[in-house]
Specification:
heterodimer, A: about 325 residues, Rossmann fold, 5-stranded parallel β-sheet, B: alpha/beta, 3-stranded antiparallel β-sheet, about 25% strand, Asp_carbamoyltransf_Asp/Orn-bd (chain A), pyrimidine biosynthesis (chain A), amino acid binding (chain A)
């Protein structure tokens, strides 16, 4: 794998391959020695143009467990605030000898630009770009679902027949988009449930069913309910009247959580707005996978970094 | 390309029976023994050797597999390899005698990686090496303790080990 910037371009075999490698990586966390020598001598740059704590820490932990050197770059207080372009930043990193670049950017398409521009030879991994994609989040969500469904015998399997309902701010959500492509590739069927004002234009052409009523979606008994964070920082218009109305119509409160079938799992990519899109009791219940998602995130990112950074790199002529 | 079969089903079975006896002899029984196969074919061989050992001695011992992909020294110069599962018995390897099992012993680099992987899982009392075929051409100071067959080869020849579990047939073939 040369880069990972989108789940849309992954084939089913590639996706299952990444999840299988992540199974091996997950085993490392249970050993006394939690480090592998695999990427010794490689340098990974975390290039974060947008705030993130958990994704950056997760990538950093993953790279360090594989013995890579990690350089953290955040746009705040860097040369970017002095007006440096993405191209110049990239070429500076190339000159420092970066083997892999993990990039988060508020502009959709920035990772693709970096991967295809020829500015840099390093492998590019997207850590979320604008409202486009967040591929490693989708992979760790799929990994978490696969483990809950198949347990220890998860290797080699997809998510065939699984019904997944993703609830909330679809319009701004790169997590929803990446999950849609990946889960569909793996054989699951996806339904979006959202206020009509938070459904993107053009969604009819996506392989997804759209609903506007959370109670109706819960009646259908989905295998997975994924609650999305209400992204206040991206809400530049009045998409819904107020937080209380959002919580009443679209939030997973205690009463709705109690109506879910026994086996249904509740997911959230974090950070959670407790009391808004998810109640505290639903977030802390045994059916919630919030902390499993964090743990699995490290294993999945180890797998992605291994697959992107190991192996012969074709040298650009 | 000429192919020559050097070991058949009966030869492989006899070799593995002998190796099982040799392991028991050198370890003075099956106590504190852990047999670990190196994927892919080493795992099948480890299981067969373990079966032979339990038909001789009634003492329980550990069987599993140890993947070395993430410890290889050629990761940067080869196409990306996909790791195989590692399965260390629950009782661990601390203080045990570990017997690593592989199909072909060649450069010794796989075994070097396996020794590194093993030290990340614990501290065995001793580590031994069993191989179905030793074809020479070592690049590291490593030798096997238990060998099915020594096959002097030229470096241009290829040794193919096929086993019923993975390939549907038991045979060792030299291709030149």
């Amino acid at each position: 794998m040369r880069h990972l910037v989108s789940t849309r371009e992954l084939t089913r075999d590639e996706a299952i391959g990444i999840l299988d490698v992540a199974e091996d990586m997950a085993g490392v966390a249970h050993r006394e020695m939690k480090k592998l020598p695999t990427l010794r001598g490689k340098t990974v740059v975390n290039l974060f143009f947008e705030d993130s704590t958990r994704t950056r820490m997760s990538f950093e932990a993953a790279a360090k467990r594989l013995s890579a050197d990690v350089i953290n770059f955040s746009a705040k207080g860097s040369s970017v605030s002095k007006g440096e372009s993405l191209k110049d930043t990239a070429q500076t990193l190339a000159a420092m000898g970066a083997d892999g670049v993990v990039i988060r950017h508020s502009a959709s398409g920035a990772p693709q630009t970096l991967a295809r521009s020829g500015w840099i030879d390093a492998g590019v991994v997207s850590a979320g770009d604008g409202t486009h994609e967040h591929p490693t989040q989708a992979l760790l969500d799929a990994f978490t679902m696969r483990r809950r469904v198949h347990g220890a015998a998860a290797r080699g399997k997809g998510l065939d027949g699984l019904t997944v309902t993703i609830v909330g701010d679809i319009l701004h959500s790169r997590v929803a988009r990446s999950n849609l492509w990946l889960l569909t590739t793996l054989g699951a069927s996806v339904r979006f449930v959202a206020p009509a004002s938070l459904v993107p234009i053009g969604v009819e052409s996506w392989p997804v069913e759209i609903g506007y009523d959370l109670d109706a979606a819960i009646e259908d008994g989905p295998d997975v309910v994924m609650m999305l964070r209400v992204q206040a920082e991206r809400m530049h218009a009045a998409f819904f009247p107020n937080a209380r109305e959002y919580a009443r119509e679209w939030g997973l409160d205690d009463e709705r959580a109690a109506r879910l079938p026994a086996g249904t799992i509740v997911m959230h990519p974090g950070p959670m707005n407790r009391g808004l899109e998810i109640s505290a009791a639903a977030a802390d219940s045994p059916r919630s996978t919030v902390l499993e998602q964090v743990t699995n995130g490290v294993a999945v990112r180890m797998a992605v970094l291994y697959l992107v950074l190991s192996g012969e790199r074709e040298v650009r002529s | 390309m000429a192919a020559r079969t050097v070991l058949q089903h009966a030869d492989i079975t006899r070799a593995l029976t002998r190796i099982a006896h040799e392991i028991l002899e050198s370890n003075r029984g099956a106590a504190d023994l852990v047999i670990l196969g190196i994927p892919t074919r080493g795992v099948a061989l480890a299981r067969r050797i373990a079966q032979n050992i339990s038909s001789i001695e009634a003492v329980p011992f550990g069987v599993g597999s140890i993947d070395v992909t993430l410890y290889r020294d050629d990761l940067a110069s080869q196409p990306t390899r996909v790791p195989a599962p590692t399965d260390i018995p629950a009782e661990g390897i601390d203080g045990k005698t570990v017997v690593l099992v592989d199909d072909v012993l060649f450069s010794g680099r796989t075994v070097r990686a396996a020794l590194d992987a093993l030290s990340d899982h614990g501290r065995p009392r001793a580590v031994r090496l069993a191989a179905l075929v030793d074809r020479g051409h070592r690049e590291l100071p490593i030798r096997a303790d238990f060998i099915g067959k020594n096959l002097p080869t030229s470096k241009s020849e290829r040794i193919m080990v096929r086993l019923e579990e993975t390939d549907g047939i038991d045979e060792v073939v030299i291709e030149s």
